[in-house]
Amino acid sequence: MDIIHLPGLISYEDGLRLQEDTVDDILIRTKGDTIYLLEHQPVYTIGRLRDRSSLRAPSFLPHPVHETIRGGLATYHGPCQSAGYPILNLATRGKDLHEHLRKIEEALIRACQSFGVNAGRRDGLTGVWVENRKLASIGVGVRKWISMHGFAINITNESLPPFFAITPCGLDGVSMTSLEAEAGRPITVMEASAAIGEELRELLSV
């Protein structure tokens, strides 16, 4: 399994193109399972749903909106987050998308705990939480049983203001938080991504 940390800020379109190309490569067996870890240029994303109310007033949003094939309502991707895209052959993992999602959650929870943050799950809600504060959003999809999309976890406090313009994941009253806010000390995206990558490698390797 290759874990690739991409430098700089990656547009959402370029990130999606990279995922699609990697899916094609895995299908023709010219590439193996790959996880990309990166920071995006600022963008809001939403699944292909009729309900777009979680975007509130799209024409007044401070950043562009991209419709995507992942599940879920509106969320934000941008600098000072760690976004991760595990592109994996789920046909060799029992074709269980639910288990795949739970393993991503678990990897993020363990990485947070390595920084002293008591992260966990909330019943009936996808993502990673600290009590009632949401730390990471997760949305996955598949093409021919190759996984796409993944997660975005807020690392520094600079990642938080764009969430004020939407209803994150369609959940009214949700407060977003960051890893450094919960740890009570500065944490860089590089530090966090390194820890996340190792947890993903352990949990997602066949």
What does it look like?
- The chain is an alpha/beta fold and 206 residues long.
- It contains 4 helices and 11 strands, in the order βαβββββαβββββαα.
- The chain has helices at residues 12-27, 97-114, 179-183, 189-204; strands at residues 2-10, 34-40, 43-47, 65-68, 75-77, 81-87, 120-122, 125-130, 133-143, 146-154, 175-176.
- Strands 1, 2, 6, 7, 8, 9, 10 and 11 form an 8-stranded mixed beta sheet that branches. Strands 4-3-5 form a 3-stranded mixed beta sheet, with no helix packed on it.
- Strand 1, helix 1 (12-27) and strand 2 form a beta-alpha-beta unit.
- Helix 2 (97-114) packs across helix 4.
- The N and C termini lie close together (9 Å).
- The mean pLDDT is 92.
- Low-pLDDT sequence parts: none
Percentage of β-strand residues: 25-35%
Evaluate the radius of gyration. 16 Å
SSE string:
EHEEEEEHEEEEEHH
How many strands, what sense, and barrel or not for the largest sheet?
8 strands, mixed
Mean pLDDT figure:
92
First-residue to last-residue Cα separation? 9 Å
The helix-and-strand class reads alpha/beta
Helical element count?
4
Approximately how much helix is present in the residues? 25-40%
